[in-house]
Amino acid sequence: xxxxxxxxxxxxxxxxxxxxxxxxxxxxxxxxxxxxxxxxxxxxxxxxxxxxxxxxxxxxxxxxxxxxxxxxxxxxxxxxxxxxxxxxxxxxxxxxxxxxxxxxxxxxxxxxxxxxxxxxxxxxxxxxxxxxxxxxxxxxxxxxxxxxxxxxxxxxxxxxxxxxxxxxxxxxxxxxxxxxxxxxxxxxxxxxxxxxxxxxxxxxxxxxxxxxxxxxxxxxxxxxxxxxxxxxxxxxxxxxxxxxxxxxxxxxxxxxxxxxx
Length: 261
Ligand code: PXL
Prior knowledge:
Layout: E1 3-10, H1 17-27, E2 31-42, E3 47-52, H2 55-68, E4 73-76, H3 82-92, E5 100-102, H4 120-127, E6 133-134, H5 138-145, H6 152-163, E7 170-172, E8 183-186, E9 191-194, H7 207-220, H8 225-242
Parallel strand pairs: 1-2, 1-4, 4-5, 5-6
Antiparallel strand pairs: 2-3, 7-8, 8-9
Bound molecules: 3-hydroxy-5-(hydroxymethyl)-2-methylisonicotinaldehyde.
């Protein structure tokens, strides 16, 4: 079985982050292992808090994983700080043929900042250049490329600018576009628009994680980058359609965070 590593934050609601990635790998027939970079407290409607994991524990998680498994691909999600990115880049350095998907998570869907401002430079300088695929949404593409991204042409320009940072391929996801949900793929040779249906559901928390984890899973199974992206898009769409609204959690009495009993 192909083994895929996810490097990112824990989401206790399992909608995004590590928990969601492991479910995606499992659904697609790959075996997921993980390095947790941060512990978040959140659900689909609100983000409360997060604490980054120290460099030493990131390294020991990685070493535990690579001494026990032979990895076929990896993806990164929430990385949090410049220090974590520097550590991850050091750990992942090496084989340029190793499939690495970077989901450049900067904000949560609920608006919380998940990547320090100071971490943008090392993300662009150290991680993007060793990636096989970078998968920003419109907002992340604008931040990474330093330009406005709100239509198809601007998406293609941003994809090219991110490619020029050293990525082997880029897909700018158009889920937040006003009209149809087209994604723009660029691999240095061709700009490929990938059209998709817009689905009217409320719970899209974690869709980006599902997409990038699925792409990593298909790359691990030997698909080329464009077909991995196409299949990942289909899989993420199916997941959105099949998702449930997690609701308000009425079964247990709610205790305010920090409340001493
Ligand atoms: O969907 C991006 C994402 C990734 N990882 C974690 C998150 C989020 C968004 O909320 O919380 C841990």
